[in-house]
């Protein structure tokens, strides 16, 4: 189980109204302005030993050769005579990197971590059940069961203390998401192309600046089996959304690489249209702002949500697949879909955050500003309605 803190833009009154529920004590109340430079206050609840351990772990991870060596040892098949070395690396990883970045190996471990963060410092968490790509329906169903266990665990925690994150590539075979994304991209770049037969909503997924080079020729339509599998993926997502809606837990759907993102967005907005009624959305899509088309897609989504009468939930991140996106574009002799510099990405992230927070102030949306960047975080925190 992975867990991460988050900054959310949500009405303080709506949060405070829920705190007495289930007998949980309220967390420490935030000051009028959260001073991120006041490290004494921010880390007052963290033991010195934990801070020193974190410093040592992060310092070690700053060494590229050390990280490369450890990763190679973990991934490779190790001969008998080197199994002790691999076991030692695994033990070291559990005690350092895993302990630093993961809430625990089991749901019970994660629950204790989230509860402590909430009780000690009033910090909310994002629970991320650590599953990656699924190859077939059986793997998807196993992952669904894991995600539902994570939601059930989250529902036992203090109200508003956590949200749950899912990956669509864990709920649908990646080959199916690639095929569906090809159809959506081809539909976007060819107005004469017949509408995708299985498409059940017209919520905007792509835009004029989206990277369409990933589908250079007209794809074959989905087969009847693939359409059924896509419906199964939607039902898996719906089951998680339903459980989250009943427990009043936000569901954050991760963004992934461009080859599958259109299908992920299609399913995300399908779920949003079904569950995001009222001023507090259940379903949040993710925008990766290192992509050149991210702001336009987000603005189109905001307009689509307004037209459909649903609340838009967005998680903003910079992006996690830079190397993969760059290599793929180069292999296809196409322009990179990413911004040309980190500064452009920073500007895009901040612009998107400002746009979403303005919509939050009008009661039309909710946003999770997911960043480790202090300079991005400070202006957004100043803009949040509850600080």
Could you walk me through the main structural features you see in this protein, from its secondary elements to its overall organization?
Belongs to the proline oxidase family. One of its GO terms (molecular function) is proline dehydrogenase activity. Its cofactor is FAD. By secondary structure, the protein is of the alpha/beta class. It has one domain (2-39, 107-383): Alpha-Beta Barrel (TIM Barrel), CATH 3.20.20.220. It is 51% helix and 9% strand. The chain has 14 helices and eight strands. The protein has helices at 12-16, 39-42, 48-61, 64-75, 83-101, 107-121, 137-155, 174-189, 224-247, 261-275, 294-308, 322-331, 342-361, 374-383, and strands at residues 2-5, 7-9, 125-128, 162-166, 251-253, 283-288, 312-317, 365-369. Strands 1-3-4-5-6-7-8-2 form an eight-stranded mixed beta sheet, with helices on one face. Helix 7 (137-155) links the parallel strand 3 and strand 4. Helix 8 (174-189) crosses helix 10 (261-275) and helix 11 runs parallel beside helix 13 (342-361). It starts with a strand and ends with a helix. 35% of the residues are buried.
């Amino acid at each position: 189980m992975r867990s991460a803190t988050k900054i959310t833009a949500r009405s303080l009154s709506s949060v405070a109204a829920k705190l007495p529920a289930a007998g949980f004590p309220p967390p420490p109340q935030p000051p009028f302005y959260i001073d991120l430079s006041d490290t004494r206050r921010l880390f007052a609840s963290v033991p010195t030993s934990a801070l020193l351990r974190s410093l040592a772990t992060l310092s070690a991870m700053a060494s590229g050769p050390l990280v490369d060596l450890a990763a190679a040892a973990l991934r490779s098949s190790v001969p008998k005579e080197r199994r002790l070395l691999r076991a030692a690396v695994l033990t070291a990883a559990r005690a350092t990197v895993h302990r630093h970045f993961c809430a625990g190996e089991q749901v019970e471990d994660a629950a204790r971590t989230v509860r402590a963060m909430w009780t000690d410092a009033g910090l909310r968490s994002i629970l991320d059940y650590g599953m990656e790509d699924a190859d077939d329906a059986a793997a998807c169903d196993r992952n669904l069961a894991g995600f539902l266990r994570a939601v059930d665990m989250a529902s036992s925690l203090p109200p508003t203390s956590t949200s749950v994150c899912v990956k669509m590539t864990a709920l649908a075979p990646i080959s199916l998401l690639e095929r569906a994304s090809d159809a959506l991209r081809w539909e976007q770049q060819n107005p004469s192309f017949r509408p995708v037969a299985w498409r059940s909503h017209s919520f905007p997924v792509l835009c004029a600046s989206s990277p369409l080079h990933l589908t250079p020729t007209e794809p074959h339509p989905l087969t009847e089996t693939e359409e059924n599998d896509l419906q199964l993926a939607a039902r898996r997502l719906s089951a998680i959304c339903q459980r989250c809606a009943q427990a009043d837990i936000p569901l954050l759907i991760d963004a992934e690489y461009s080859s599958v993102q259109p299908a992920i967005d299609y399913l995300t907005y399908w779920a949003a249209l079904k569950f995001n009624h009222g001023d507090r959305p259940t379903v949040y899509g993710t925008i990766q702002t290192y992509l050149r088309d991210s702001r336009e897609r987000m603005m189109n989504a905001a307009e689509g949500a307004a037209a459909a009468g649903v609340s838009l939930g967005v998680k903003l991140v910079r992006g996690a697949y830079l190397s993969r996106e760059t290599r793929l574009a180069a292999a296809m002799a196409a322009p990179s879909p990413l911004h040309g510099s980190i500064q452009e990405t920073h500007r895009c992230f901040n612009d998107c955050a400002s746009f979403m927070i303005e919509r939050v102030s009008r009661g039309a949306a909710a946003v999770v500003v997911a960043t480790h960047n202090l300079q991005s975080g400070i202006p957004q925190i100043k803009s949040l309605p509850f600080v």
